[in-house]
């Protein structure tokens, strides 16, 4: 089924007791004016609500982070470390007694998280914050209020095994500790009060994706460890187990926005695991999302442009959609 609706209209689809609101996101950056490559990912927001993503440039400029808003431009490029390929970004809370702004970026080739600093004169520098050759990637990251970073990673195999995905913790001091192993893990996000950690898991059988789930863990506030793993959402229940979960972001109400890579859609899911809304995107392969803008309420959805563009081809697109509450990441920085 496809829905073509204006961004201000919504249609109620009544199925039993559940009602899923249907929306269409609005194009912000299109194939015509994009300065991003097709590996655009890691949507992130800073204190001012500006939006960032990786792969500013073309399909061979992977060590770059770019501004999506207010105006497309280069934010940071690692010219020192061979092979650097950024995927996830998060902005950090300003450190006490320092006048600089901080971002963390996941480099999935060099198995590290880079700390990017912007000093008071606007000079941007990067330095490895946390690294471990045992990290599978990392793919995406989420940042706790106390400065701890949670990382996910994945390895594609014909037949996924436990251990093709991992969850790691990087402490504020840059020490790493493995928390769990699963099938392929990708989207990772904390709840607004850092009480829960959500992580996606996908499983392939004979090179076909057969399962996509979101798990929820309880986070121990003192040690940062995770426990009480429970199934939060299984996409088999909505017949899309074959579509990969990509980025996950929370709003301040604890609703999750979940990217359906290949599904041309972002789903909004309540903290109780109920699908509240389907946000259709103008491109088939969204990768990541973030709530940003002046009030932290504008969902920015990034991914490679087009409907059937092959992997690595074309350029990066961005759509937007207006939420009724600000994002967790934005509000943490205020
Ligand atoms: C990609 O961009 C870089 C940096 O601007 C440039 O050197 C390179 O030639 C470009 N590559 C392609 C394939 O367009
Ligand atoms: C795996 O997929 C290949 C290609 O589609 C097919 O030929 C083969 O029979 C499959 N093997 C199993 C065990 O299902
Ligand atoms: C980048 O794009 C060019 C031109 O479309 C293509 O030939 C090349 O395979 C792409 N590179 C990657 C890494 O996907």
Using brief descriptors, characterize the structure shown.
6-blade_b-propeller_TolB-like; SMP-30/CGR1_Lactonase; hydrolase; single chain; 1 helix; 50% strand; six-stranded mixed sheet; four-stranded antiparallel sheet; disordered N terminus; binds 2-acetamido-2-deoxy-beta-D-glucopyranose; 334 residues; SGL; mainly beta
Descriptive overview:
Residues 1-11 have low confidence and may be disordered. This protein has one helix spanning 328-332; strands at 11-15, 18-24, 26-29, 44-45, 51-54, 64-67, 73-77, 86-92, 101-107, 112-118, 124-131, 140-143, 149-154, 165-170, 176-182, 184-190, 196-205, 208-219, 226-234, 244-250, 256-261, 265-269, 275-280, 285-292, 298-304, 316-322. The relative contact order is 0.16. Strands 1-2-23-22-21-20 form a 6-stranded mixed beta sheet, with no helix packed on it. By secondary structure, it is an all-beta fold. It binds 2-acetamido-2-deoxy-beta-D-glucopyranose (NAG) (3 copies). One 2-acetamido-2-deoxy-beta-D-glucopyranose (NAG) binds at residues 59, 312-313. One 2-acetamido-2-deoxy-beta-D-glucopyranose is lined by residues 57-58, 60-61.
């Amino acid at each position: 089924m496809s829905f073509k609706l204006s961004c201000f209209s919504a249609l109620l689809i009544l199925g039993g007791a559940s009602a899923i609101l249907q929306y269409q996101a609005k194009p912000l950056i299109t194939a015509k004016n994009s300065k991003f490559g097709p590996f655009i990912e890691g949507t992130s927001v800073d204190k001012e609500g500006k939006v960032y993503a990786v792969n500013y440039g073309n399909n061979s400029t992977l060590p770059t982070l770019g501004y999506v808003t207010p105006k497309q431009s280069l934010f940071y490029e690692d010219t020192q470390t061979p092979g650097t390929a950024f995927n996830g970004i998060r902005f950090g809370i300003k450190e006490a007694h320092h006048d600089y702004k901080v971002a963390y970026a996941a480099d999935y080739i060099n198995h590290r998280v880079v700390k990017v600093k912007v000093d008071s004169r606007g000079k941007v520098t990067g330095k490895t914050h946390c690294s471990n050759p045992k990290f599978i990637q990392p793919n995406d990251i989420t940042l706790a209020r106390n400065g701890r970073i949670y990382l996910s990673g994945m390895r594609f195999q014909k037949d996924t095994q436990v251990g093709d995905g991992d969850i790691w913790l990087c402490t504020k001091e840059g020490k790493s500790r493995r928390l769990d192993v699963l099938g392929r893990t990708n989207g990772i996000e904390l709840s607004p009060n850092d009480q829960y950690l959500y992580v996606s898991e996908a499983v392939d059988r004979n090179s076909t994706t057969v399962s996509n789930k979101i798990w929820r863990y309880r986070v121990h506030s003192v040690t940062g460890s995770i426990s009480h793993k429970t199934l939060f959402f299984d996409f088999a229940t909505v017949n899309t187990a074959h579509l990969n979960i990509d980025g996950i972001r929370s709003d301040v109400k604890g609703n999750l926005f979940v990217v359906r890579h290949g599904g041309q859609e972002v789903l909004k899911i309540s903290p109780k695991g109920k699908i509240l809304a389907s946000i259709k995107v103008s491109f088939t392969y969204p990768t990541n999302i973030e709530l940003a803008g002046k009030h932290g309420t504008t969902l920015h959805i990034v991914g490679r442009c087009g409907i059937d563009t092959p992997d690595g081809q074309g350029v990066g697109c961005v759509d937007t959609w207006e939420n009724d509450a600000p994002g967790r990441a934005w509000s943490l920085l205020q």
